[in-house]
Amino acid sequence: AVLALALVLIWAVSRRLRDAVTTRLARRVETLPGAVLASRLPPVFLGMASHAGVLLAWGLSLLVLFVFLAFSLDQFATTRALGEGLLHAFSALLLQSLTSVAEAIPGLFVAVIIFLVAWLCTRVCGELFEQVAAGQLKLGMLDAHTAPATRHIVNASLWLFALAMAYPYLPGAQTEAFKGLSVILGIMVSIGASGVVGQVASGVILVYTRALSLGEYVGIQDHEGTVTEIGLFVTRLRTGTGVEVALPNALVIGNVTRNFSRQSVDGGTVLEAAITIGYDTPWRQVHALLTEAAAAVPAISREPAPFVVQTALQDAYVAYRLVVHVSAREPDTRARVQSDLHASIQDLFNRYGVQIMSPSYYDDPAEPKIVPESKWYTAPARPPAQDQEPR
Predict the structure, then answer these.
(1) pLDDT for the residue 390
(2) Residue 298: count of CB within 10 angstroms of its CB
C-alpha cells in the first residue's frame, strides 16, 4: 500500500510540476522580442521540460521500487542476505560514481583550459584573416582571395589539435568502452568521409591555384555564370537567368574551366558567339557581317574591338567565332547582351542573304534557309515603332 501510494504521488506531483513549468515557460517565452524567435522557441523548450519531468518521474519510481524490494527481502531470514547485498551493491555503486566524478574534475579542468586556449587562438586568427580579407594586410601568398579558405583550415586544425591534446583528460577516456567507441567512430569517419575529404581537398586546390575568383564569369562543363561562393565542398554560380548552380569541387577540378573575366581590362567579361557558314560564302564577308552585328549592340565595348577567328574547316562549312567584350559583370546583363548579339547576327545575315548552317549540315536545301527582311515582323511580332505606340 505504501509503495502504490508513493508511485501515485510521484506521478501526480510530476504531472503537476510539469504542467506548472511548461505554462510558466510558455508565458516567459511569449514576452521575448521577435515574432520569429517567440514562435520557434516554445515547442523546443516545452518539449524538453515535459520529457525532463517524465524522466524524473521514472527515476524516482525505479528508486522507490528498489528500496521496496530491498526492504521486503530484508524482512525474512531466508532472503535477508540478498536484501543486504542489494543495499551494499547500491551504496558501493553510488560511492564509486561519486569517487569517479571527484577524480575526473582535475582532468576535466585541464580539458576546459585546452579548449579555451584553442578558442582564443581561433579568435586571434579570425581577426588576422579578417584584416587580410579586407585588404588591410598581406602576408606572402595569403591575400584576400586565399584568406577565407585558409581561415577554415587553420580553425579546423586548431580544434583537432585541441581535441587530441584534451582526449586523455576527458572523463572515461582510459576505459575500454571509450577506446572501443573511439575506434568504431574512427572507422566510420574514415569510410564515410572519403568523399568529403576529396571535396575539401578540391576546394583548397581551387583557392590556391586561383583557377577562379569571386565575381568572375566562368564556364564549367555545361554551366556558365558568376562565381558567388567558393566553399570547401561546393562552388556556386549564378547564371544569367537567375538560377543558382552548386557544383561539387571535385567536379570543378575534374573539368575544364573557362574564365571569361581574366582577359577583360575594364573588369567586364568576354563574350563569344560561334556560327558555321558554307564555303560558298566569302570569309571576308562573314567577318564583316559579324563585326557589324557586334557594332549594332550598344552594350558591347568598342575597346578592345570585336574580332573574328576561324576555328575549324569542316567538310561542308567553316566554323567562325566572334569574340567581344562586355563591360558589365552581372550575369543577367551578360545574358541579355548575348541574346541581343545573337538576334543582331540573325538579322544581318538574313538581310544579306547569307545562310547560317549551324548546328549541323547534311545537304544543300532547295531554297536558302533565310528570312527576308519583309517577314521579320510577322505577327504577332511588331516593329519597334509599333511597340512604342499605346495598345
Answers:
(1) 43
(2) 8
Contacts of 277 (CB under 8 A, 6+ apart): 283, 286, 317, 318, 320, 354, 355, 356, 357
Q: At what angle do helices 35-74 and 2-30 cross, to 10 degrees?
A: 170
DSSP letter, residue 373: G
Question: Is residue 259 within 8 Å of residue 298, measured between CB atoms?
Answer: no
Rounded CA separation 93/109 (Å): 24
- State the Cα–Cα distance between residues 174 and 167, nearest whole angstrom: 9
Q: What is the pLDDT of residues 57-91, one digit of tens each?
A: 888 888 888 888 888 888 888 888 888 888 888 88
Rounded Cα distance between 136 and 72, Å, is 78
Q: Could you read off the pLDDT of 310-336 as tens digits, one per residue?
A: 998 888 788 999 998 887 666 677 788
Residue keyed to cell 513549468: 21
245 close to 225: Cβ distance less than 8 angstroms? yes
DSSP string, 262-290: SS-SSS-EEEEEEEEEETTS-HHHHHHHH
**Angle (CA) 370 375 378, round 5°:** 130
Dihedral sign, Cα of residue 164, residue 165, residue 171, residue 176: positive
- 298: which 3 cell numbers? 550598344
Please name the residue that has the C-alpha cell 568521409.
193
| 174: enclosing H helix or E strand | none
* Lookup: cell for 13: 506531483
CB 230 within 8 A of CB 206: yes
Alpha helices in 75-175 (DSSP H): 80-133, 147-166
Length of the chain in terms of residues written: 391
Give the integer Cα–Cα distance in Å for 256 and 212: 12
Predicted local distance difference test score (pLDDT) of residue 387? 47
- Determine contact, residues 260/270, Cβ cutoff 8 Å: yes
Q: Which three cell numbers stand for residue 148?
A: 577565407
Place of cell 575534374: 254
What is the spatial distance between Cα 2 and Cα 20, in angstroms, rounded to a whole number?
27
> pTM of the prediction?
0.52
